[in-house]
């Protein structure tokens, strides 16, 4: 039997957006090193142009349903929708960073923007991965870039400390994820997700083997760390607080989107037929995640830390979708991730508006009275907070509605009741921000003035508009999300 | 042959948990990071064991990827430790409590 030489099927069209993003990252790095441009915003504008171009090329792949690179890349609606979300996250983050660099000139550098893009490339490959090997490499591309970005305030001890914690705990969690992958590979004999699905379908007895189940548990641990699922959430508030505000917004939305993509690809499809007690495990995790996040957020004084705990709670709402299973829940998760990107980056963008040289302002007192002094800013923040709380007619409400209704259809009524109770709790701390902004005299004298620039006006406007569109006219994106669910071919 | 497989797996899992225990117990950032490398060593061994039992090369390829990524992580991690050492003169994890753990 002589080995036959088969030309590998290389389809660059499928990863064109990612290629363009990577080229943009390299270009920005080179432009910065050789000092080719002098204007302050030039690097950001080059990055923005590249990212917008890559986003547009994304649309050339709509409706495709194929695998590329021998099953490594799945080009389907699911990866299209998530890539769109990730590109939007990237665009909004760049717009917000352009304002933030007034206070922190250090972030106006080629490394910053190229790391941002590389992290996004990792996220989009995670969304498109059809193989555990690519999934792991993409996850690490994203994580390593973000470890560096978290520590980007090189002179601020908090930022470095956050980077240290995120790095050590991230590396620790990744090794659990890898051991999980090893066990899944040992039990099913393949790393390819579609082949694995096929294998499980034809050998259902593997589902109850000890090797397979420990693989599932370890994988869940590793991914649970990335989405800050309770009990693996301990790092979240510290890292979110220490990181530069714009990066906090980026990682809260982007990492969550990518990790939930992996969770859907691994857990909802190949493992969709797990025995019922395993979804009970996720049931408990979802309830704990929502409750712990919301209860601790109630007592936070710093808005940044409060939003970190709210990020944990939102991971819990998304986990409801994972528990529910099925295509409706998948579409709900996709829709919610899109809305969450708009509202969370918007909220962190407002936080990033306040600052002085090398100082961030993000406690509640520092926000007092801002709503009346700067009505537009106050209105934007109010929209983001209402949406995070899930009050109609915002996008946050529609997202929760879709996930909750999918869960009710699958019969998890109690889970939805607990989720709804949690949303009610969360209204308290979101509204507190609005109350402080509008009904409290501004106390502190040296409070920083917001220094808006056209970029952040555009960014926050885009985010607020996105939330309202997703809330008032949800049908277009809901249909898009429903057509984007991952069904193995 | 099955005995051999479980022998190697047992070694892999033991290495993994030795690393995990070390990462939780030790307080020096570099030693914690080395413990994480031991965990990855255990994972690599598990992958290679399964490569032999399943008779396909996916696992061996994964080991290459893991080693490359571990090198990248080491580079980034040492940079962070170095920055921290320059700021505070220590990389003892107990001393960092500006942010509540």
Description:
The complex is a heterodimer of chains A (about 500) and B (about 100). Chain A is an all-alpha fold and about 500 residues long. Helix content of chain A is about 70%, strand content about 0%. In chain A, strands 1-2 form a two-stranded antiparallel sheet. The longest helix of chain A is centred in the middle third of the chain and has 32 residues, at about 155-190. Chain B is an all-alpha fold and about 100 residues long. Chain B has a single domain, classed as Helix Hairpins (Orthogonal Bundle), CATH 1.10.287. Chain B is built from 3 helices and no strands. The model of chain B has no long low-confidence stretch (mean pLDDT about 90). Classes of the chains: A mainly alpha (about 500), B mainly alpha (about 100). The interface between A and B is large, with 39 and 46 residues.
């Amino acid at each position: 039997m002589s080995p036959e030489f088969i030309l590998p099927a290389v389809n660059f069209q499928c990863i064109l957006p990612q290629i363009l993003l990577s080229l943009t990252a390299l270009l920005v790095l080179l432009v910065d090193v050789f000092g080719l441009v002098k204007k302050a915003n030039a690097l950001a504008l080059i990055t923005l142009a590249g990212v917008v171009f890559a986003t547009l090329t994304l649309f050339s792949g709509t409706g495709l349903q194929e695998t590329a690179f021998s099953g490594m890349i799945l080009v389907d609606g699911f990866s299209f929708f998530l890539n769109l979300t990730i590109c939007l996250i990237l665009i909004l983050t760049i717009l917000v960073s352009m304002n933030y660099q007034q206070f922190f000139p250090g972030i106006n550098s080629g490394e910053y923007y190229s790391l941002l893009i590389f992290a996004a490339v990792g996220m989009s490959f995670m969304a498109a991965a059809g193989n555990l090997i690519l999934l792991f490499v993409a996850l690490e591309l994203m994580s390593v870039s973000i470890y560096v970005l978290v520590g980007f305030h090189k002179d601020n001890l908090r930022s470095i400390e956050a980077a240290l914690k995120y790095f050590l705990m991230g590396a620790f969690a990744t090794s659990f994820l890898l051991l999980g992958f090893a066990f899944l590979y040992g039990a099913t004999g393949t790393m390819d997700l579609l082949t694995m699905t096929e294998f499980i379908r034809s050998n259902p007895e593997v589902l109850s083997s000890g090797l397979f189940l420990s693989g599932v548990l370890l994988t869940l641990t590793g991914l649970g760390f990335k989405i800050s699922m309770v009990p693996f959430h301990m790092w979240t508030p510290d890292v979110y607080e220490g990181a530069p505000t714009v990066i906090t917004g980026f990682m809260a939305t982007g990492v969550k989107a990518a990790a939930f993509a992996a969770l859907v690809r691994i857990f909802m499809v190949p493992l969709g037929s797990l025995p019922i007690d395993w979804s009970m495990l996720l049931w408990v995790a979802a309830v704990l995640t929502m409750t712990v996040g919301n209860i601790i957020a109630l007592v936070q004084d710093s808005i940044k830390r409060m939003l970190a705990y709210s990020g944990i709670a939102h991971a819990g709402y998304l986990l409801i979708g994972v528990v529910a299973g099925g295509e409706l829940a998948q579409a709900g998760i996709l829709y919610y991730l899109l809305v969450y990107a708009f509202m969370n980056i918007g909220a962190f963008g407002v936080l990033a508006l306040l600052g002085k040289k090398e100082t961030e302002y993000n406690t509640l007192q520092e926000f007092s009275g801002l709503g009346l002094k700067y009505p537009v800013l106050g209105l934007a923040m109010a929209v983001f907070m209402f949406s995070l709380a899930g009050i109609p007619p915002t996008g946050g409400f529609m997202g929760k509605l879709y996930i909750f209704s999918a869960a009710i259809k699958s019969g998890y009524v109690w889970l939805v009741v607990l989720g709804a109770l949690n949303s009610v709790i969360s209204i308290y701390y979101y509204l507190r921000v609005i109350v402080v902004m509008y009904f409290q005299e501004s106390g502190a004298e040296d409070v920083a003035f917001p220094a808006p620039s056209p970029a952040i006006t555009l960014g926050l406007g885009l985010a607020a508009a996105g939330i309202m569109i997703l809330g008032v006219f949800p049908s277009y994106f809901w249909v898009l999300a429903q057509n984007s669910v991952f069904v193995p071919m | 042959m099955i005995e051999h497989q479980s022998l190697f797996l047992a070694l892999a899992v033991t290495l993994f948990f030795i690393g995990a225990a070390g990462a939780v117990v030790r307080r020096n950032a570099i030693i914690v990071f080395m413990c994480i490398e031991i965990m990855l060593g255990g994972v690599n061994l598990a992958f290679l064991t399964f490569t032999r039992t399943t008779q396909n090369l996916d696992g061996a390829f994964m080991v290459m990827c893991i080693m490359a990524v571990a090198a990248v992580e080491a580079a980034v991690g040492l940079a962070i430790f170095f920055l921290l050492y320059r700021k505070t003169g220590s990389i003892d994890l107990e001393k960092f409590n500006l942010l509540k753990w």
